[in-house]
Protein: Barstar (barnase inhibitor) domain-containing protein
Amino acid sequence: MHQARYALLSGRHVLALCHDVDGLYGDPAPHPRLRHELRGCEPRGELARAVTQAIVEGTAPLGTLDVETPDGPWRFTAVRVLDARGDVVTIEAAGPPRRLHGGAPGAVPCAHLIPLPAPDPLPTEVTFLGCSPRGALRDALATGTPDFEELRYRVLRDSGSHAHEGAAGPVTGWDAARGHHGLLDLTVAFPRTGLIPAPTREVWDLFHDHRGPTEPGTWRRFTGAARAVWRHEAGLRSYDLPEPDPGATYPLDGRGITDEDGLVCALTEAVHGPGLAYPFGSPRALGAELSGCTLIWRHADIARACLGVTPLRTEPRPATFREWVDGLRAEGVRVVLD
Structure:
């Protein structure tokens, strides 16, 4: 068997090592929005308006909702009102409520917050190819009764460590593997919300072995979540980087610096070469690492237009271009904007 790329597990026990996979990489289904009943509720203000709209139109957007219960104040975000009957208001929100500390002026008084079950999207079939079952799974397959309610899977690196772990679902079928004598293809009922976007696989493939990417600027091909995965994988290789040469000048290629991940990747590449990323990312921390050096920041207008602007609502707020420049300079880095 070739080097295994995937492992199937039950708890901490590896039940199979697999050569490849079919169906794992694709657009994940969005996670169901969480629903709650607000019982013993006294709608007022924006909630009263949304309740009236929901009664007429079926649902109504609300936004942020603060609720005061006997247990204290709670905050829901991205709220939509679904129904209202008597003193019970049904809402859906982006996630579970967050407890507020220090009070919530204007919070709506309610007696109880009751979470409602959320329907899971129907699973999809994912087949792990060229698998070598072991232990309890091998015995169960031999008798035709793989009694494992839920398996997990890992995406393996060449070193044997794993880049990712997630829920795989129960085994629903198996067959002899094509091109792999004595091995099996195992099909599972995989949660659609757990599918992996294709660009993430491309990043994992680039970092699969010990060499990693060697072409400068490869990180620019990736955006959003895939770029964050790149930075994570590169950061794992970057804990023992040598200190920069005192007084050295480094050209910083600003093409593609549209977010913090891009800046950290570009800056580390400028100093140490491709496929690396400092495992820290605040302006002052990077400034302390490069104190005494000069950065010639080319195409700085791209970062000036993007850093700290998107996304607008994250916690903590991403640093702006000016905050990056000021933080680097405060730690003794000479920054020349080109």
Remarks:
- The chain has three domains: 6-29+122-196, 34-116, 200-337.
- The longest helix spans residues 45-57.
- The longest strand covers residues 72-85.
- Helices lie at 45-57, 135-143, 198-206, 224-235, 260-272, 283-289, 300-306, 321-330.
